[in-house]
Amino acid sequence: MTTRETKEFDGITLERVREHVWEIPQEGEMRVPARVLASEPLLEQIGDDKTLQQLKNATHLPGITKHALCMPDGHQGYGFPVGGVGATDAEKGCISPGAVGYDINCGVRMMRTNLTYDDLKGKEEELVDSLFANVPSGLGGGGVVEEGIDTVEEILARGMDWALERGYATEADLAHCEDEGMRPDADPDAVSQKAKDRGKNQIGSLGSGNHFLEVQRVTDVFRPEVGEAYGLEEDQIVVLIHCGSRGLGHQTCTDYLRRIEKEHADLLEDLPDKELAAAPAGSELAEEYYGAMCAAINFAWVNRQLIMHRTRQVFARVFGRDWEDMEMELLYDVAHNIAKKETHTVEGEERELYVHRKGATRAFPAGHPEVPAAYRDVGQPVIIPGSMGAGSYVLRGGDESMGLTFGSTAHGAGRVMSRTQAKQEFWGETVQDELRDQEKIYVKAQSGATVAEEAPGVYKDVDEVVRVSDDLGIGDKVARTYPVCNIKG
């Protein structure tokens, strides 16, 4: 009998199952084993904070199946690790707001154009200034649309259908968004008045923190046939938008965490961390949270859609052409803080599960019925942003994703440094100057502190994160992009 290679971090032992797959064996009160998908360098970084303990804690969730999983970009989060995936039985398990996170449907969308990098040269500063002036960002209020509660409730119920009706979206935009931009299980009545009040002045706004709008150029296409299906080619200009449900989503998470603490204290007592707070599947509270979460998901899709609409208008002014002439079309929009009812095969049996993806991206392979028709033959697009100095990737859902990760992969580079530490290590203005002078990347933000918090040195190596995903076959490399202009809150 051969013994497996092991590694230990703060008393937690991981066994190497195979290349890039490490397992924390089931023991004690754990309901399933936990698995980390990482190369050795990434595992060292993942083991450097509380990620592994949080992952181990997640295995205590009622009804969790197969494994609790940590993607290659994993790092410490609130209760449940960022980069975490946990699938719980939709009938006998639970749904956990803590395993979704505060920024419900934080996600990314990429918009193609027919512009080349040469078309953009010389216009970088004009473009970054105009985007910054016209796309609301930063903490607090201010949005592309600022209307009453009735509008918020309509957005919560209808998602991007509302944007289409109002002229902010096209039919093609809906066809190229996860779930066509609308969760039918949304229940606006399950969203509190306080959450709606927080959202009404933030419809179409980036917010702050790690959220951004970035103009990029495609530097590499690794799978030409998939790149062609996605409409990507080298030297092309694309736009990446990263944000979520703003104060509305944050308040919704807070509301339900507090309610769970009151109404399901018994379940909470059985969990090693109260931040994993979960409602039992089938309970009134679980149904209400699912309806509220789906409504916040719809809000986030409309938020990103309105930012894209405003971006199209800015490009039209800067380049003196209609956005349609520049073929500014949505490639795809993916969510990465979400719990969805999905059917997966577990031990030969099809089961309905709540698949929690917190800082993880859905990555369904070719042929899956939930992949948009335009991409079903090649697989779902997956968009993985790196830091503002390192570039980003477009992947496609890999053939191994359903068996290994409940159809999931990483969502970004993943932090290696806290925001507080980053502000001690970096000076925002210096970061901006170096990016402009050395890399020809133009960054504009509400404050220098925001730039310092998001400096390239704060993040893991996105190339390594994507390499692991590609090697495992959960998300296959299609194209790489590199920043040209970046705006932040």
Automatic annotation (TrEMBL):
Name of the protein in its database record: tRNA-splicing ligase RtcB
Keywords, alphabetical: GTP-binding, Ligase, Manganese, Metal-binding, Nucleotide-binding
Region (Disordered): 178-205
Protein species of origin: Halogranum gelatinilyticum
Entry's family note: Belongs to the RtcB family.
Catalytic activity line of the entry: a 3'-end 2',3'-cyclophospho-ribonucleotide-RNA + a 5'-end dephospho-ribonucleoside-RNA + GTP + H2O = a ribonucleotidyl-ribonucleotide-RNA + GMP + diphosphate + H(+); a 3'-end 3'-phospho-ribonucleotide-RNA + a 5'-end dephospho-ribonucleoside-RNA + GTP = a ribonucleotidyl-ribonucleotide-RNA + GMP + diphosphate
Cofactor: Mn(2+)
Keyword Manganese recorded: yes
